[in-house]
Write a structure and sequence with these properties.
single chain, mainly beta, six-stranded antiparallel beta sheet, 1 helix, 12 strands
Length: about 190
């Protein structure tokens, strides 16, 4: 069987390469990444009537807070980067976009072997309310998916929203949950 000419050229170039370490030995460790300092990252925010959704850095992820008329209604409870099943979805990368004429925030993150995504929009029919749509692609048995919030007035017990129990079976699978935060508090479902 004849190899394509292109493959031979690449192989020949590899033989002539200059190595920064001895072939066959382990590669030297890479230097640690230098993430931008929290003050260097733009913290997005959404407003909807009297409600405001703001973000602040919490270690490697973004913590979010919903306030109405300047008073905190809910603040996400965040775990550290080692948590395999964090208290809330780890929102690491955030972007804003206008979708269907509405300002939308989309976020992604990773914990353990699970990938998380979130879409947060002003609720289409309820004033002063945000709609949270969360999805997690899991590869291990679920040991606590959900979103956890501290609520005012403190020291109220945290509120936890979990996915419906009637989701798909088997692994890997995608698990989804939806809730709203607004003047009525934290409510499971689309409201």
């Amino acid at each position: 069987m004849r190899r394509p000419q292109r493959m031979l050229r690449r192989h020949e170039a590899d033989r002539r390469a200059t190595f920064l370490f001895t072939p066959g030995s382990p590669m030297p460790p890479l230097p640690p990444p230098h993430p931008a300092a929290p003050q260097e990252r733009h913290a997005p925010r959404l407003t909807h009537g009297r409600a405001e959704l703001t973000f602040s850095r919490h270690g490697d992820r973004w913590q979010h807070r919903v306030a109405i008329d300047g008073r905190m209604v809910a603040e996400s409870v965040e775990d550290g980067p080692a948590a395999r099943w964090p208290a809330s979805p780890p929102l690491v990368d955030l972007s804003t976009a206008t979708i269907a004429g509405r300002q939308t925030l989309v976020a992604v993150g990773l914990a353990g072997r699970s990938h998380f995504s979130a879409s947060i929009t002003p609720h289409p029919t309820r004033p002063d309310t945000f709609l949270f749509e969360i999805a997690a692609r899991i590869h291990d048995r679920d040991a606590g998916l959900g979103s956890t919030y501290a609520t005012a007035p403190a020291p109220a017990a945290p509120v936890r929203i979990t996915p419906p129990a009637d989701g798909p079976a088997g692994l890997p699978r995608t698990v989804q949950w939806v809730y709203t935060i607004g003047p009525d508090g934290i409510v499971a479902g689309r409201g």
